[in-house]
Amino acid sequence: MSTESADYAERLRKKQTVWWKRALHVQAPYHWNLRRQGLGRTLDVGCGIGRNLAVLPAGSVGVDHNSESVAIARSMGYDAVTSKEFLGSTPPASFDGILLAHVIEHMDADSGEKLLREYLKFLKPGGKVFFVCPQERGYDSDPTHERFTTGDDLVELCRTVGLVPQVPFSFPFPRKLGKIFIYNEFCLLARRPA
Known about the structure:
Blueprint: H1 6-17, H2 19-24, H3 28-35, E1 42-45, E2 61-64, H4 67-75, E3 80-82, H5 83-87, E4 95-101, H6 109-120, E5 123-134, H7 136-140, H8 151-161, E6 164-165, E7 169-171, E8 185-191
Parallel strand pairs: 1-2, 1-4, 2-3, 4-5
Antiparallel strand pairs: 5-8, 6-8, 7-8
GO molecular function: S-adenosylmethionine-dependent methyltransferase activity
Protein name: Class I SAM-dependent methyltransferase
InterPro entries: Methyltransf_11, SAM-dependent_MTases_sf
């Protein structure tokens, strides 16, 4: 399965709308973690079906290479566009923040760097970039994951492209639970120099 396929978009939709996730509002702590980063008007790169767009500030935009995922996000009222639509129409330095949640692990290191460089031109000087990648159990849960990416890997990526990273952290539980809890994540906030 490719992350560009209609099947992948449908997989995301089914995972997001399962009854117990809606009843328990399991995204609440993750949304809290995202909001507390203070990203401002955000470009959500690899937005999928838009689960994070629900809590990002007004004016935020999701972009994804999967047109089916973008269609689902739009049907839920989110501002989402395909990569081709976005790259051909958006002025540089127009966003306060960039979100890459569950994106970098889907590609090799060179492709991840290339993707980040491609979208950094849309980030204002002094803007923030927030990364989220799954830990071991979450990484193993998706056959489209290509490269296990740790917080230290994210720090290295940031330094390579000229971002100033903070200290990576494990969320929502300590790092040792990443091998058993599917939703434990590596998180890193970085800043573009002003």
